[in-house]
Amino acid sequence: MIEQTLIPVEEVGTIAALQPWPSDGPPVLREDSSMWPLSPSQIDPEDDYELDPDEVYTQQHSAPRTAPLPPTIIQPSQSAWDPDWADCGLAPIVRSLYAEKNIKKMYDWQFSCLSNERMLEGRNLIVALPTSAGKTLVAEMITMRCVMVRKKKAIIILPFVSIVVEKVNQLAEFGRRLHFNVEGYYGGQGSFPLSHSTDVAICTIEKGHSLINQMIEEKRFCKEVGLIVIDELHMLDEEERGFNLELLLTKALFEGRNDTIQILGMSATIPNVIKIAQWLQADCYNNLDFRPVPLSEMVKVQNTLYNASGQTIRTVQDYKCKQASELYPLCMEVVSKPDQSVLVFCSSRADTVNTADTLAKCLPPETMKYKEQEKVMLLQKLKYANSGGSDSTLTRTIPMGIAYHNASLTVDEREIIEEGYSNRIINILTCTTTLAAGVNLPARRVILKNLFTGREKLKGRTYRQMCGRAGRAGIDDYGESILISRKDQQKVAYELMNAPLEEVRSSLYNSSCKKCFKRLILDSLGGHYANTRQGIYDFVSCTLYAFQSPMEEIHPEIERNLSYLLDNGFVETFWEDVNGIQVERLRTTLLGNATFQSTFSPEKEASLIDSELRRAQELLVLSDSLHLCYLITPMYNLFPVQDWDLYLSIYNSLPPIRKKIASAVGVTEDYLYNQTVCSKPDSLSDSRHKDNLSLRIAVRFYFALALSDLIEEVPIFQLSKKYKIERGNLQKLQESAQAFGSQMQNFCKVMDYWALAEVISTYCKRINVGTKMELVPLTEIAGVKRARARALWNGGFRTVRQIALATPEELMKAVRAGPYAGEGISKMIIRSAKELLEKKARELREQAEELLPTGGTQEGAGNGFL
Ligand SMILES: Nc1ncnc2c1ncn2[C@@H]1O[C@H](COP(=O)(O)OP(=O)(O)OP(=O)(O)O)[C@@H](O)[C@H]1O
């Protein structure tokens, strides 16, 4: 075995004498300061040839332990002569682009990070600073340095689709001016394989993981990628998503072991940042107390405001609004001044709606006069986005400058409300916790309506993220957060305000994520990181879980899960002849490889899906979209059916072909009738129904019906009423079906179900945008969604090229569609269409260059070869 480098333990908090990784891989570190010296699997395959698996296993246990490498803590810059800007080797124009955004000088901490030599040399870095501290600028500068100075690609991983979309727009603006290309990877967006001309890929966690897997497979990852940015690094401890993030980072550590790939992690809520930095072999900048805009945290009990130590600050004036006596005065104090805004965090979706309604009733009527025209426009935009449907609450509250924001709204509705809030047309926004970590919508005052989210008590991390939204950089000189508490809960409120943040632990600690171990093993074999038990141990030892757990717990876990995979046909052993010696190896079977490529769960989904797909190849009905929609509807985590009577009546009105499909998948009238008699709204996550296959099929079929209407362009408002599914939940269904469908496609490709893969791919595209096939190409234009695409089509614009060549006037004339027909929007659509054409042309050129090795697509260049 290759010897491990021994690294002395040094006191955390000092600048360590850092050593580079050994040439054969990262040192394998453990949180408890005892290192399990496993070498990365590919170090030298010949090393364990003589060992049988049991021997290897024993050796691991008896191996000596070494110590972890503490990270360097980047110190705030102390020098009086520090310039205002660290250019990271980028041209001066970058600074002027920031100046246009009103960022003229860097904060000290930004300067310290961006002028740090080790960071500039490519050392990994973790930045742990509170919300609104300005982490984005640091990430952008390091990304641009990667692309423009180091000439490598950057992959940015963000937690939510909405933030990916926002970031793509922001960076594309830089890209246009500085000549680099940005591509977004979310939902059905983003081309696989990554185009050679894409410089920055901005991805959701799952898409980022798939992209990295594919680049590793094509041996492009280490060669082309120079940077991986992870925003909200604390998501490592979230169940499924955290696991994907951990796996992705494990691969990056494993692959980029010659320091070729820099990792930048950012979070506002990682108290054990030093340990996480140690796992990632990163330096860190850690100042969870930094705030560019000072924050004053308070709790309100009855009429009095207290600080976090329980000292009285002041009493609140009573504004006499019976329905919202606690909240109304706190809102009025702020919004009675011009251009001020309040965010009110509520405990549930229903509460956001009720609170907005109640507050609107209390506000004085003259409030309606403020920005009256803009409010009318905002309501029109919402109506247009809903194909003519109007939300009755928003129609009442927006004229008063109030709106609600939660997941029951569609993405379009939320975007329009966010825009209205940013432009100060809406002054009071009631929201759920989703806005705490989502898009950047700061407020002068943040109010937490109570100590709960749903039925659970707020966690320290969520509380801090909510408070962090108070104070707008460059606008406010301070921000305020006020937690409203009942008198009998005052103690709990103080505990929450003073609670230390929860440490970030690997998602594999989560009992519901234990199943992920099987995926971990499949990934190590399927991704060719390992072909022996030793190799699997090596790979697993690079995970955060291995860094944080005693090895005695990990070994049995690996063995147990490996046995399952061997017994159930996902993994097999084979013998390899090495210099005349027969050596036992491990590899994925066809089913195992399909499961790895699709990221399905081996236990819950893979076998079930395989038998369903085999049946579908014989019985698939193609004359109606419903059967395919059913195949693409996820098997798990669906919402409950709210009304079985409604379901039965929908079933009874289905045409014969749809009833035939229902019977082919196993839904019968008798079953639905029984449900109407004996069932309440059921949740599939309810343990009573976990194994109830018939129920799962029936629920899946119900949502497939809704999806099949959606792709026929039935307006979401109408669908929501017909099926009693909230608008936001319909879009969630659309998103998850699209994701499930692309997993299916990968599964089918590996299993050689080519015909199914093709047809599923077409339906995924339709489901992604919720349209008939004819509109799909138009929806590829940035800013063109379902409604706009239909308006363009009906106005005679049938191809992207036609739109790219149109004048804004022609477009406006054709698309007479309310607030979306303005000149600015038309120009933006034309520009996006041109960019899309250019991107497609670039990709075709690349493909041509790959086809024609003599070089290029210039006229005549390929003739000799052909
Ligand atoms: N050096 C600076 N000078 C002035 N304003 C700045 C500076 N850096 C960032 N800002 C502004 O501060 C605000 C918050 O910054 P940013 O969104 O980067 O915070 P963040 O740390 O990424 O927060 P989050 O944790 O919410 O993602 C933005 O409006 C940004 O433009």
From TrEMBL:
GO terms for cellular component: nucleus. CDD domains: DEXHc_POLQ-like, SF2_C_Ski2. Residues 18-50 are annotated as: Disordered. The keyword Cell cycle does not apply. Residues 326-512 form the Helicase C-terminal domain. Its main location: nucleus. GO terms for molecular function: 3'-5' DNA helicase activity; ATP binding; hydrolase activity; nucleic acid binding. Pfam families: DEAD, DUF7898, Helicase_C, HTH_61, POLQ_helical. It is found in: Nucleus. GO terms for biological process: DNA repair. This is DNA polymerase theta. It comes from Planoprotostelium fungivorum.
